[in-house]
Design goal:
about 475 residues, alpha+beta, Phosphorylase Kinase, domain 1, Transferase(Phosphotransferase), domain 1, 3 domains, six-stranded antiparallel beta sheet, two-stranded antiparallel sheet, 17 helices, about 55% helix, elongated, binds adenosine-5'-triphosphate, binds magnesium ion, Protein kinase domain-containing protein, ATP binding, protein kinase activity, LRR_receptor-like_kinase
């Protein structure tokens, strides 16, 4: 595919050149044909045999503009007794011939000018695109080391050598594991200080094992076909990951670097010291809980990040795994959506939906996905609705509470109580940890939005932009 694509500009140029040659020769041919036809008529009238004229032309000894003059002279010489009107006719024909020739030349020049102009345009366009690509590659190459490490956030990862430890076999042996997800372990590491007295900088490293490779040995045992498939898969991942690496928004956690390993990929992110929303919703060591205004701000931030992925990215990015553990909190407690684009880059990262932690993850997946097996932007809106429900009620979809109530899960429970309109029952919806602080009205409004987002019919759900607008109108 790639070689064909790189050959195609050359092919276009060649085709255009051939077209130009054909066109010019066609014009020549047409004008030659016209000359012969017209001059035979002149010759016939002037008494010169057309054969004689054609002979003159074929010998090529005399330029053909003189041939006509010669024919006129010879006509004159041979026909002294011809009437004066004959001379007038022949000078009129000469004038007509000159006019016709001038017109023909103009047409030919126009055609040649047009073709040459188009050709020049195409060639300079191609040259510009090649130069642009070269410049872009040079720029990207500045942050790409020989080992294949690509740095997307040079402000955080100043040199590729700072990540060189990942290429060692035991590189992560002494590094702390901070979490484990569908793709594998997440580690926390410190970057070497650039200057003395500099604040320590931490990164989170996500290790993603290759689909077929379970270690070097496994990769060595692969057949040629399997190795080719693995190479193709690795290249696909790299190109997707590099697309994701260039996405920036204040509510998204950007990829800081990508380090391809022998049997895995390392995705490097800035370490978020406030952890995930999943952890923040639990009371901290001092028994404090996340207050409502902070929760509302997080909700608005998630909606803004989601809107950016759905609306500003082309092709749009559907997260597919929105849940509190994929919402990280920065130093200002601002929401940062993590793992966006990973589902597209590493389709297998969702396989954990069928493993033991299925309930936790499945609680966030839109019901239509089970029938269609197709993720749409409205599936993300559904998951976001569940997050809103969790923020207001303080209960995860897996909460044991839902085994005690008649409704099947958090969404059915919420829907029924909101629809019934009983104020006492609605007050019961609110998370005990934040109830009584004067935000009940706001919390109930957010829970109503959660009900909209989790409508059974995806078409009835609002878009991420609608939700962001609705949430922004709730003043805290
Ligand atoms: N950049 C980060 N900063 C701080 N903690 C992080 C960071 N990235 C991940 N974590 C922690 O690591 C945990 C595991 O993350 P991981 O993304 O692998 O799994 P997950 O989010 O639970 O599930 P999924 O595989 O669906 O994303 C997270 O819950 C979070 O607590
Ligand atoms: Mg995650």
């Amino acid at each position: 595919m790639a070689p064909a694509a790189s050959r195609s500009p050359l092919l276009v140029v060649l085709l255009l050149a051939v077209a130009l040659v054909l066109l010019v020769s066609a014009v020549e041919c047409y004008s030659g044909h016209h000359d012969v036809a017209r001059s035979s008529a002149v010759a016939r009238r002037s008494g010169l045999g057309s054969g004689q004229y054609v002979r003159h032309r074929r010998t090529g000894a005399v330029p053909h503009r003189y041939v006509l003059a010669e024919s006129r002279n010879s006509t004159r010489n041979s026909n002294h007794s011809s009437p004066a009107g004959s001379n007038a006719t022949s000078s009129g024909e000469e004038q007509q011939g000159r006019h016709h020739r001038g017109h023909r030349h103009r047409v030919r020049n126009w055609i040649i000018g047009f073709v040459v102009g188009s050709l020049t345009g195409v060639i300079s366009g191609l040259a510009m695109s090649v130069l642009f690509r070269l410049a872009l590659n040079c720029l990207r190459g500045l942050y790409r080391s020989k080992s294949g490490t690509v740095i997307f956030t040079p402000k955080l990862i100043k040199r590729a050598e700072h990540l060189a430890f990942l290429r060692k076999d035991d590189g992560l042996a002494s590094v702390a594991v901070i979490g484990r997800g569908g793709c594998g372990e997440v580690y926390k590491a410190q970057l070497p200080p650039e200057a003395e007295g500099e604040e320590p900088r931490f990164i989170a490293i996500k290790k993603i094992k290759n689909r077929a490779g379970d270690g070097r040995g496994a990769q060595n045992n692969l057949s040629d076909e399997e190795s080719r498939l693995l190479d193709k898969w690795t290249r696909q991942i790299q190109s997707e990951i590099r697309t994701v690496g260039h996405i920036r928004h204040r509510n998204l956690l950007p990829l800081a670097a990508h380090v391809p390993g022998t049997d895995c990929h390392y995705l490097v992110y800035e370490f978020m010291k406030n952890g995930s929303l999943h952890n923040a919703l639990k009371p901290n060591a001092g028994g404090e809980v996340l207050p409502w205004p902070a929760r509302l701000r997080i909700a608005v931030g998630i909606a803004a990040g989601l809107e950016y992925l759905h609306v500003s990215q082309r092709p749009q990015i559907i997260h597919r795994d929105l849940k509190p553990s994929n919402i990280l909190l920065d130093d200002d407690m601002e929401a940062r959506i993590a793992d966006f684009g990973l589902a597209r880059a590493i389709p297998d990262s969702n396989t954990h939906m069928t493993t033991s932690n299925v309930a936790g993850t499945l609680g966030y997946i839109a019901p239509e996905y089970h029938q269609t097996l197709k993720f749409t932007a409205k599936c993300d809106v559904y998951s976001f609705g569940v997050i809103l429900a969790v923020l207001g009620t303080g209960k995860e979809p897996t909460d044991p509470f839902f085994t005690q109530v008649d409704d099947v899960g958090i969404i059915m429970w919420l829907r029924r109580v909101i629809k019934d309109g009983n104020p006492a029952a609605q007050a019961e919806l609110i998370d005990d940890a934040i109830a009584g602080a004067g935000y009940e009205e706001q919390i109930l409004l957010v829970l109503r939005i959660a009900v909209f987002c989790t409508a059974d019919d995806p078409k009835e759900r609002p878009t991420a932009k609608d939700v962001r607008c609705m949430l922004s109108q709730i003043k805290s």
